[in-house]
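ok so I'm stuck.
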Amino acid sequence: MAKTGHIKHHRETAEPIELNPLFSRLGEATELPRFVMPDRPTQPETAYQIVHDESMLDGNARLNLATFVGTWMDEQSIKIYAEAADKNMIDKDEYPQTAAIETRCWRMLAHLWGSPDSEKSIGTSTIGSSEACMLGGLALKRRWRHARDAAGKDASKPNLVMSAAVQVCWEKFCNYFDVEPRYIPISEQYPVLSGPQLEEYVDENTIGVVAIMGVTYTGVYEPVEEIAAALDALQEKTGLDIPIHVDGASGAMIAPFLQPDFVWDFRLERVHSINTSGHKYGLVYPGLGWVVWRTEDLLPDDLVFRVSYLGGDMPTFALNFSRPGAQVLLQYYLFLRLGFEGYRSVQGASRDVAKYLSEAIGKMGPFDLCSDGSDIPVFAWKLKDGHRGHWTLYDLSDRLRMRGWLVPAYPMPDDLAAITVQRIVVRNGLSRDLAGSLLNDIETEVKYLEALEAPMPAENRSRPHHH
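replied:
not stuck anymore, here's the structure
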């Protein structure tokens, strides 16, 4: 899982919305206020046209290569979406079949992720993988606290160990739920979290270690099996039994299909929980996430609320209450529609496009690849050391935006903050043909920037920001 960023606000004038003569029918207002509710109703066609026209000013979602979130679904999906738009996922008494389908989906995921017995697993849908991460973190914290209380030990200083390259939702979790974040810096020697780094960061107050299946910055997998082995060795040495939560926002829906021999999931006993984004490489429109625990006992019962709601007794574990049920049905549709082989084909096509793009960009004179799309279909590149052009990757990002492409540039975290990278996320819907057009535009804009004889004015440069 749309993960550190600056919120960018557009400044709008308070001038009223002026309607052109097409809207000037008898009885129709010719001006509408922007920030207060209009006094009178507006014709539905007029209101629709205003919203439609304003939304045209947004970028083209298909050309947004910054986001991991799905931007394309087929016609049958759109039909299901429209038919199920009124379903409230939390109201399981009113929509029991949608609730049953939710259970089918997370059980399918438990099986996909190597659960020894998916009937003994437990899971839930969420509004996105950020919520799913927080639920996974809460379960880790509560189980740790129960164990500390049972042993008569202090439970006031929990900490969570993770890479400095985690998505911002983990920073939020630690902030919101009073957990000390322990970030392991990444470096050229250790570009991702790995086993040898762990021992100096974990202690008796560590509630868990987060492993990332597809680092946001570069798309590279963290070596979950190596991390688990290091924690096994640590337990033998110290007695500390520290679980792993796998943030598989993207990779949990790639690795089972494209890297089946890569061991990262419930095949490792130390992996207690896994989350993913249904709305990323689950291929569903936003917002949908999933979190699954290896066995029911790993989700503490005192985190589950049993609510009498609209005529039914309903167990719930979520940060949100009412939320859309349509996306759950869309996920089930895709599981049925594609099956294992279909997902393998779709994800494989995305990886092929990522490899095609990364190979071509890696051959361009100014660039060195940081990753090539071999893990998830995401890759990043940087300017070569000693690049003497009067431009940066922020300038290239701006030039591509003028052509409709959103290709972000941003600094790496912590010890690598001096390195700026540019990243492309290849999703279902970015065809080889579109990718060829993108390459042509990148080549054109690189030639333009390389031909500059003086630095670009500072006001024309993008500010560093993460997507």
